[in-house]
Write a structure and sequence with these properties.
GO terms for molecular function: acetoacetate-CoA ligase activity. The chain is an all-alpha fold. About 35% of the residues lie in helices and about 0% in strands. It is flat, with a radius of gyration of 16 Å. About 5% of the residues are buried.
Length: about 80
Amino acid sequence: MKNEMSPRHVPKYTFETPDMPKTVNVKKVELPDKQIVSAKTIKPSGTLLNHQSLDYYYQISKVEEVVRKHKELKAKL
């Protein structure tokens, strides 16, 4: 992407997810994971087939906090 577009189009982090949230009709759901990564807490709807897949996105939402703490610790050393 960086070579074909400008560097601002390159995401800071990329993650491979173990499972995508899906509905009971096995359709992919993107809105809950987008909201979670944007630091919002959501209440999963009853139409989600695999609620446990959202746990991974809550971990991703804390990446910036973990990286910041790591840099602070590294600076103190």
